[in-house]
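[PROTEIN RECORD]
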Amino acid sequence: MHAVHSRAVCTQQRVAAVPAHVARPAAASRQVVARTSNVPLHQLNHDSTSRADTGGEGRCPFLQALRAPPMVQMSWLKRVQLQIFAPAEFQAHVLRDRGQDTVVQAPRQAGFSSFFMPATGELVKALLGEEASGNITQGLAEKGGFRAFGTLLGEDSLLVVKDPARHAYLRGLLQPAFSADAVAAYLPDIEALVSRHLQAWQGAGREGVKAHAALKALTFDFILQIVMGRSIPEQQLQRLGELFSALTSGLLAWPYLDLPFTAWHKALAAQAELCSFFLQGCAEARQQLAGGLAVPGVLGRLVAAADEQGNRLTDQEIAHNLLLVLFAGHDTSSTTLTRALANLQDHPRVMQRLREEQAAVQQRRGGAISADALRDMRYADAVVRETLRRDPVVGALARV
């Protein structure tokens, strides 16, 4: 596994122009030069770094072209502690005082595969950019403890699918539902939902609300409503929340024993019930489409999606990837929003400038949220980006 830690992605470095030999490593993999120790190109002991021209599955042209990176110098115990509990600190430690080195290598150890860590914006862009060409995918399901992701998120989840062609096929059918135009169509529902939650917070009076708990409730409601294109009854929403908590608890339920009293067993049952919820939604959406009715939300766009050959997503493919949307978007969004509020409280001048921008945008665009209004919120966008830079919610991004 080759991990790209989020600090490398979120430094918001300005890269004036990514050189062609870096931007297109697949087309000219042997021209890619990383600034590492002056040692010859070597063949690493990983299946995924075999030569690209052998035609095998899972080849990584980008990594083939790198010179041998220096190995992390750290005791195995400290590596485990930092990688699990403080990934940002781990990255900062191993990349400190590296000089011109732009990639480091962490050795294989219990619970972790060996991986490489690029340390510059150019290399991160080159690596992540390879997903578009299908040369690099996430493919986590077959790596150690990450097999739990494959089981709980489903074999058709983009986080799990490793075959480049299939990954590209699924991505091509899924992406339009999350395009800028699609999001603009969701804005009225988003505004109504957020307004409802804000009114409930105001109703708490002097007692106030606990930000993280309230934002977790908001983002969970938000994702499900925008995905399904309808409001979810409170009792059902609570049940789905309990199922989701059981599922996420199972991701770390090593040794993954399927026995009635284990967290893994409960996670498997939760996954089945959540998938059943999404599958039922798919069936209802297809009935509406067959009757000539429009189906709102992300689900409506997914069941109607078709490629140039007329291929459509199956209900299982939709269900597994909606589960991924819920998994990837819930805690990440609620935690980032919580950190944004904390940062704004600590920086009143930023808060004041943010309010001034909002007042100016409302004066120009009116009170309703629109795509044009969002484009005018440049300072708000900067606040969000700075929050992600200061407090990255994801410890690492891994690609194989």
